[in-house]
Write a sequence for this structure.
């Protein structure tokens, strides 16, 4: 639950997302260097979260970064229940209902020599979960991370834009609108109207699979804390 000025919370979430993506960009090459050519979504996300949880900068920015976070819903009888699993959630304190959620999807997956954009899955099984408030209930901002496995970000971005335009239940109010890139991460934003009338901003970041790693990619990062 958010208390106080809603726009102030939006500004805080947006500012944090910018700084958080900078740290993901910092660990991204090393994460991908230890994974196979076409890694699974969970494998990528686990390795990102593991490094972020040890990152000295991230430790100063938030309370905790959780992999596969389960937001709670409230039943009519007053009991709590799981609303599903969101790939990454950033918690700022002990308040479980106040978090910034990141849903992660693979894009441009190569299988048997053919490419599947998976843009429709990105929309229907990613973005829509914020619209239905399965994720980020009563929260004004949600985030999407796209892992572009063949490195062709323009193709991925184009297919996502088409899938967004074709999916009426997204209730698109604004966008896709470009955001400033962070390192090699291409970004854009969309704004949607939920069924209850509230508005949510979704911030999208597309990560390109980096080239073959060099020795620098696998050497320890000085900002990573080793237990």
């Amino acid at each position: 639950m958010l208390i106080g000025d809603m726009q102030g919370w939006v500004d805080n979430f947006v500012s944090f997302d910018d700084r958080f993506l900078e740290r993901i960009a910092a660990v991204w090459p090393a994460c991908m260097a230890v994974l196979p050519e076409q890694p699974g979504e969970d494998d990528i996300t686990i390795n990102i979260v593991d490094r972020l949880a040890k990152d000295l900068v991230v430790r100063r920015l938030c309370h905790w970064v959780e992999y596969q976070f389960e937001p709670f819903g409230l039943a009519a009888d007053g009991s709590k229940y799981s609303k599903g699993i969101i790939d990454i959630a950033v918690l700022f304190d002990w308040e479980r209902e106040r978090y910034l959620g990141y849903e992660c999807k693979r894009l441009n997956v190569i299988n048997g020599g053919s490419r599947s954009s998976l843009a429709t899955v990105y929309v229907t099984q990613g973005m829509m979960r914020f619209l239905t408030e399965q994720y980020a209930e009563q929260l004004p901002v949600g985030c999407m991370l796209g892992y572009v496995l063949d490195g062709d970000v323009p193709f991925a971005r184009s297919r996502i834009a088409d899938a967004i335009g074709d999916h009426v239940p997204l209730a698109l109010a604004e966008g896709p609108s470009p955001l400033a890139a962070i390192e090699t991460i291409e970004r854009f934003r969309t704004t949607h109207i939920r069924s209850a009338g509230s508005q949510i901003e979704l911030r999208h970041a597309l990560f390109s699979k980096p080239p073959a790693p060099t020795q620098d990619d696998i050497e320890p990062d000085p900002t990573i804390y080793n237990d």
In short: The two ends are 33 Å apart (CA to CA). The first strand starts at residue 64 and ends at 69.
